[in-house]
Amino acid sequence: MVELLTGLALLVLAGRLVVTAAKGFGEALGWSEFVVGSLLVAIGTSTPEFVTALIAARRGHSDVGVGAVLGSNIFNTLFIVGIAGLIQPITGDVDGLEIAVVLGILGTVLVIPNSSSLVGRLRGVALLGTYALFVVAVLAT
């Protein structure tokens, strides 16, 4: 029980540090909080899924990696945003939100396997291109 409480306390502390540091970087770069969250914080919090997907693919279990990435994004979008909205209404200037939603839907469609159940190199390039478009679009807002 002590380990659980210690881990939870450290997780809360780390979350606060990430938010504070990201806001500092964002202010230094002149970025809105949405841009900071959707670029800097998102990269940092997605690193574990990235590593999981790479390790799973190298071990021949790419379906586990893809499932972890998609499951994490679905969980974050539906559960975490839902809980955050219950705790306190989400407000603010989110000029890039429409772009994020549209490109997120496009990305989800691109992940749907083809008839041979593969997401091949061409789709990989399309997904990376979609992310690049997202970064450019969010930075332009």
Could you give a short account of the major beta sheet? none
Any idea what the radius of gyration is? Answer: 17 Å
Assembly category:
single chain
What is the approximate shape? globular
Q: Helix amount, in percent? A: over 70%
Mean pLDDT: 87
Beta strand %: under 5%
Low-confidence stretches: none
Series of H and E elements: HHHHH
In total, the number of strands is: 0
What structural class do you assign from the helix and strand content? mainly alpha
Number of separate helices: 5
Distance between the terminal alpha carbons, to the nearest Å? Answer: 46 Å
Can you give a write-up of this model?
With 141 residues, the protein is mainly alpha-helical. It has a domain at 95-141. It contains 5 helices and no strands. The chain has helices at 2-29, 33-58, 62-87, 97-111, 121-140. Helix 1 crosses helix 2, helix 2 (33-58) runs antiparallel to helix 3 (62-87) and helix 4 runs antiparallel to helix 5. The protein is globular, with a radius of gyration of 17 Å.
